[in-house]
Amino acid sequence: MTLLRDEHLAAAFDHAARSYDTLVAANPGYHAHLRRSARRLGLPRGGEGLRVLDLGCGTGASTGALAEVLPSAEITAVDASAGMLERAAAKTWPPNVTFVHAPAERLAEAGVTGPFDAVFAAYLFRNVTDPDAVLRTVHGLLAPGGRLAVHEYTLGGRRTDRAVWTLVCRGVVQPVATLLGDGDLYRHLWRSVVEFDTADRFAHRLEANGFDRVRRLPLPGWQTGITHTFTGRRPTTTETAR
Fold first, then answer.
1. How confident is the model at residue 240, as a pLDDT?
2. pLDDT tens, 45-100?
3. CA distances from residue 162 to 58, 131, 153, 196, 229 in whole angstroms, order as listed
4. N or C end of the chain, less CB within 10 A?
């Protein structure tokens, strides 16, 4: 199968929204890993006085992680799938959390404008048609010195990393998703990961798009070598001018 993109991918997520939370809840460490990545932003004072963009929020798992780690931040959560966003917005949230329906490529059209002090993106970049263009958009939305954390399936490069990912997808995830009528989306999930950047390559992609202090950080459990947190920063104006 070819990878799902743009409106086709959004439609697949719309359909899968009803069962998405149930499936991810069966993934050991899923929510704990998101909280770990949110903490890796390193924002002070629980986010007091700061604006944070949750890019590709889905049904709100990443939003929940940010709200727990940064309870005082102003959080704007964005997703291209109306179905996923409806599920997210229907949950109970504090007043500092706002949801916006928009693709990552057309944020300005939806009124999402910077500067943000931080951007968090979970499971997003391998799903966009042009990750470099989205990274440039994110860079432009950040205030000088603003921070980025990307939480993503990016294989470490070992044969065992791909083997474990394939075993989990084909042996567990895809059979269950097919029974739920969402086989195409979760076949896309497997392929989107194996065809996307390795962890090293994605770190270099961040640097190539203007981010500095880039770090690649592993996550524990069965996802070691499969899922990573990447952190980076938009340089300050003074540093850029050097």
1. 56
2. 999 999 999 999 999 999 999 999 999 999 999 999 999 999 999 999 999 999 99
3. 25, 22, 11, 12, 18
4. C
Residue partners of 228: CB distance under 8 A and separation at least 6: 151, 152, 154, 156, 199, 202, 216, 217, 218, 219
Give me 187's structure tokens: 């076949």
**Which residues does the chain have with pLDDT short of 50?**
241-242
Task: Give the integer Cα–Cα distance in Å for 163 and 160.
Answer: 5
CA distance 236 to 234: 6
Residue written as tokens 């009528």?
181
Find all residues with CB under 8 Å of 144, minimum gap 6, and list them.
Answer: 234, 235, 236, 237, 240
The answer to whether the CB of 173 falls within 8 A of the CB of 195 is no
Alpha helices in 29-182 (DSSP H): 30-39, 61-69, 82-89, 131-141, 159-168, 174-179
Contact 189/116 with Cβ under 8 angstroms?
A: no
- Give the model's pLDDT for residue 241: 45
pTM over 0.90: yes
Helix (H/G/I), strand (E/B), else coil: 211:
coil
Q: Please report, to the nearest 10 degrees, the dihedral formed by the alpha carbons of residues 51, 52, 55, 56 taken in order.
A: -120
